[in-house]
């Protein structure tokens, strides 16, 4: 087998890392069975089309698309969680904050306001030391709920369109792509807790309500 390219390897490592978010977690009151899926997933990215030279984006539109997430607010869950930039560790794990009340935005993903790509934000469902995390009830978030992401000095609103539960090694490739339709993906662990880890990842997909 040939060695994968750096980009493909990075996605693989990140997917594995998100599956391993529960390595330090303890059994909580989450249901042992996987949460039911809900809603309709965004369409897959279209094949790349032939491109022509176009005018450069204006300074205003470029700036509007380059805001780093600061806070995720979910009124339905009474959550307002700070967000820290998160890279991939040497062990291939997404370096989300150890504090379960804080979330991590993958620095390789899109930013709120970008016209393409997934804004990928993840967090612990709970930890042995601190208990429940900000995303503890993510599996209960219904389709239609609003999520607000504060970025820079503005806030981008999203509406939940789908919720999915994946085996921890089966996160979809679209989560790590920059050519999808614009979307937000919140990720945490879920399902049964066995052998020191949760068996699944819960992913909530949300579409932007408007652009800043």
From TrEMBL:
By its UniProt entry, which CDD domains does this protein fall under? Sortase_F
Its keywords, alphabetically, are:
Hydrolase
For this protein, the record's InterPro entries field holds: ArgE/DapE_CS (IPR001261), Sortase (IPR005754), Sortase_dom-sf (IPR023365), Sortase_F (IPR042001), TAT_signal (IPR006311)
Highest taxon listed in the record's lineage: Bacteria
Annotated GO molecular function terms are:
hydrolase activity
Q: Does the keyword DNA-binding apply?
A: no
| Location of the region described as Disordered in the Swiss-Prot/TrEMBL record | 38-64
Spell out the PROSITE patterns in the cross-references: ARGE_DAPE_CPG2_1 (PS00758), TAT (PS51318)
Please state what the protein is called: Sortase family protein
Source species of the chain? Spirilliplanes yamanashiensis
Q: What is the lineage of its organism?
A: Bacteria, Bacillati, Actinomycetota, Actinomycetes, Micromonosporales
């Amino acid at each position: 087998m040939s060695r994968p390219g750096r980009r493909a390897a990075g996605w693989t490592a990140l997917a594995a890392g998100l599956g391993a978010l529960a390595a330090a977690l303890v059994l909580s009151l989450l249901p042992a069975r996987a949460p039911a899926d809900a809603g309709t997933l965004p369409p897959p990215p279209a094949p790349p089309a032939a491109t022509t030279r176009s005018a450069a984006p204006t300074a205003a539109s470029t700036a509007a698309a380059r805001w780093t997430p600061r806070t995720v607010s979910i009124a339905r869950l009474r959550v307002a969680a700070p967000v820290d930039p998160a890279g991939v560790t040497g062990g291939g794990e997404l370096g989300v904050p150890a504090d379960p009340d804080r979330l991590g935005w993958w620095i390789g993903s899109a930013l709120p306001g970008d016209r393409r790509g997934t804004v990928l934000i993840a967090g612990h469902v709970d930890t042995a030391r601190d208990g429940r995390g900000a995303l503890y009830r993510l599996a209960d978030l219904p389709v239609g709920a609003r999520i607000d992401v504060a970025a820079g000095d503005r806030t981008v609103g999203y509406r939940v369109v789908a919720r999915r539960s994946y085996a921890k090694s089966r996160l979809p490739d679209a989560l790590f792509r920059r050519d999808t339709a614009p979307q937000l993906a919140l990720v945490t662990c879920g399902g049964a807790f066995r052998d020191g880890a949760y068996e699944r990842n819960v992913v909530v997909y949300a579409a932007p309500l408007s652009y800043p």
